Amino acid sequence: MKSISIKEILSTEPKQQEVTVNGWVKTFRSNRFVALNDGSTIHNIQCVVDFEDFDEELLKQIATGAALRITGALVESQGKGQRVEIQVSKIFIHGSADPESYPIQPKKHSMEFLREKAHLRVRTNTFSAVMRVRSALAFAVHKYFTDNGFYYFQAPIITGSDAEGAGEMFRVTTLDGKNPPIDENGAINHKEDFFGKETNLTVSGQLEAEAYAMGLGKVYTFGPTFRAENSNTSRHLAEFWMIEPEMAFFDLDANMDLAEDFIKAVLSYVIENCLDDLEFLEKRLLDEEKTKPQAERSDMPLIDKLKFIIDNNFKRVTYTEAIDILRNSKPNKKKKFKYPINEWGADLQSEHERYLVEKHFKCPVILFDYPAKIKAFYMRLNEDGKTVRAMDILFPGIGEIVGGSQREERLDVLKEKMAALDIPEEELWWYLDLRKFGTAVHSGFGLGFERLVLFATGMGNIRDVIPFPRTPQNAEF
Ligand code: 4AD
Ligand code: MG
Q1: Which of 29, 120, 415, 467 is the most exposed place for a label (fewest CB within 10 A)?
Q2: 3-state secondary structure the chain
Q3: What kind of fold does domain 6-103 have according to CATH?
Q4: Is the minimum distance from the CB of 162 to ligand 1 under 6 angstroms?
């Protein structure tokens, strides 16, 4: 049974030729017009049914959500809104969908409602568009790195080390939760656990990527990442996908150049390859913006926003400069920030990041040279002894999209840092080895894939850009 995708059919010259398509019914109007979609494109094919030619019982089963195979002649469309249509000669019902119980009806559903129907929401225009863009972005990521001499590297998902030192990890164990073995100190005895030690799901593949960069030169990871932080925000997931390039012989400037070029390249890729979906998502966003108060509306349509990122340089600012700007800012003086900025050393919250990007600079910002105290142990210490070669990229509407750094390549400095933070050397003996044998300047960063998809699609909540989101109290499906 040969069929053709709707995407292909829509660009085929209509010559009365017989075609067969499969898909799901979007709408069935006037017992005559079936709008069919198979997921290959945002556009539907209109199939015109002469109801006198078909059995009434069969027609009754054609309702939104039903899966059909349709055969007919491809002709120039008589109506407006489409170039071609199918004059239906045969209909086969793969499976019907009862309108009384099928939840995805042709009307506006709230995002919250659709989250509860995450197994069906991809049949809506919005989610199919988002997921096609997501897929294209993932391909663009692999393409960019492959074109630029990187090797794709798979870091382990089960790990014995806590890369970020934040301790927000999901434990992996086969011990009996009700009756675990106990050691002489009364603690759970992980020696009897599957791996003979405590293990967790990874929060980052960076440390392992560093090992591989010191042999392959330029590597990147692109895989699932897990964080057990209890953050119920529109920007956090407990399971997300992270892209982590790591490059030997790159300093922080080269790292920033790469991150900026990379983001611009993948966004250009989706503009070139997903224009139909982006145009649909742009309209969706405009409609959504209309429901917001004037002051909160974004003044740039989605595609212009993506082009703006591609065409403009990211503004590079030190943490110290940013603190000065924030300290003297209107919201800080008027006590509008939830976390007022008083002194150097304060950790930046998303309200501060968004002020810098959306109000002050009005463009993406790369903040660098952060205080050592608020950043991870592996970042390279600057000559001043108090800042590290860290960089975060901040995006409008998103806040932090990238976190990265030049790594501490000096064995003695790294050891001192670990001692100060009570990180046992035995745990990271292999990481220290990298500084003993052929150490070199090296850098890398991590980009949260869902935050990138969020930006590219103009969606408002990170739960709507990953197929089945995992968040606190939610692991349905
Ligand atoms: O800033 P983070 O924690 O950096 C690291 O993990 C480094 N090891 C990366 C590196 O240098 N190789 O996380 C990197 C990015 C963030 O900027 C953000 O985009 C995303 O990962 N991210 C999350 N995305 C969704 N949900 C969460 N809970 C996230 N936490 C971080
Ligand atoms: Mg970060």
Answers
A1: 29
A2: CCCCCHHHHHCCCCCCCEEEEEEEEEEEECCCEEEEECCCCCCCEEEECCHHHCCHHHHHCCCCCCEEEEEEEEEECCCCCCCEEEEEEEEEEEECCCCCCCCCCCCCCCHHHHHCCCCCHHHCHHHHHHHHHHHHHHHHHHHHHHHCCCEECCCCCEECCCCCCCCCCCEECCCCCCCCCECCCCCECHHHCCCCCCEEECCCCHHHHHHHHHHHCEEEEEEEEECCCCCCCCCCCCEEEEEEEEEECCCHHHHHHHHHHHHHHHHHHHHHHCHHHHHHHHHHHHHHHHCCCHHHCCCCCHHHHHHHHHHCCCEEEEHHHHHHHHHCCHHHHCCCCCCCCCCCCCCCCHHHHHHHHHHHHCCCEEEEEEEHHHCCCCECECCCCCEEEEEEEEECCCEEEEEEEEECCCHHHHHHHHHHCCCCCCCCHHHHHHHHCCCCCEEEEEEEHHHHHHHHHCCCCHHHCCCCCCECCECCC
A3: OB fold (Dihydrolipoamide Acetyltransferase, E2P) (2.40.50)
A4: no
Query: Consecutive 10-residue runs of the chain (477 residues): their mean pLDDT?
Result: 90 96 96 96 97 93 97 92 94 96 94 97 98 98 98 96 80 94 92 94 97 98 95 95 98 98 98 98 94 81 97 97 96 95 94 94 97 96 98 95 98 96 92 98 98 98 98 95
Ligand 1 contact, 367 CB (< 6 A): no
Cα of 31 from ligand 2 centre, angstroms:
55
| Residue 393 near ligand 1, beta carbon < 6 Å | no
Give the pTM.
0.97
Ligand nearest to the CA of 374: 2
Class of CATH domain 123-168+203-464: alpha beta
- What separation in Å is there between the alpha carbon of 404 and the centre of ligand 1? 9
> Quick check: CB of 353 below 6 Å from ligand 1?
no
